[in-house]
Amino acid sequence: MKYLCLVYSDEQDLHSLPDSPEDRECAAYAQSLVGSGHLLAGEALQSVNNATTVRVRGGEVHITDGPFAETKEQLAGFYMIDAKDLNEALRIAQGIPPARVGSIEVRPVRQLQVD
């Protein structure tokens, strides 16, 4: 089953706290997930300062610089994994290095039915 592990952290804390992961540690963990057959895709995201939000309301398009909502933690990246069940997905998510300074939201992927 596919799960999306969303990495959230305060951008200023992500690389500045004593327990902050370095990029090479994240890359090594991702490579270990590739080796075990669990990683389907994963990427780090650029700063939330580079985000653009698109909304369509009543047929009218609204484009805003920045993220959708003001929050303490921002979406920093993601890991798309294949796990046998939620317990295995949670075990994998515990190893994602930014979990030490932020949080990892684990969500099952819903398959879209397209006719």
Q: Could you characterize what this model shows?
A:
This is YciI family protein. InterPro entries: Dimeric_a/b-barrel, YCII. Residues 1-111 form the YCII-related domain. Belongs to the YciI family. It holds the Pfam family YCII. The chain is flat. The chain has one domain: 2-Layer Sandwich (Alpha-Beta Plaits), CATH 3.30.70. The chain has three helices and six strands, in the order βααββββαβ. The mean pLDDT is 91. The longest helix is centred in the first third of the chain and has 14 residues, at 23-36. It is an alpha+beta fold and 115 residues long. A four-stranded antiparallel beta sheet has the order 2-5-1-6. Helix content is 23%, strand content 36%. The chain has helices at residues 11-14, 23-36, 86-94, and strands at residues 2-9, 39-44, 52-57, 60-65, 74-82, 103-108.
Could you list some keywords that capture this structure?
115 residues; alpha+beta; Alpha-Beta Plaits; two-stranded antiparallel ribbon; 6 strands; YCII
Distance between the termini: 22 Å
Overall form: flat
What structural class results from the helix and strand content?
alpha+beta
Number of helices: 3
CATH superfamily: Dimeric alpha+beta barrel
Counting structural domains, the number is 1
Which CATH architecture would you pick? 2-Layer Sandwich
Give the neighbour order of strands across the main sheet. 2-5-1-6
Q: How can the largest sheet be summarized?
A: 4 strands, antiparallel
What is the helix content? 10-25%
CATH class: Alpha Beta
Question: How much of the polypeptide forms β-strand, as a percent range?
Answer: 35-45%
Low-confidence stretches: none
* CATH fold annotation: Alpha-Beta Plaits
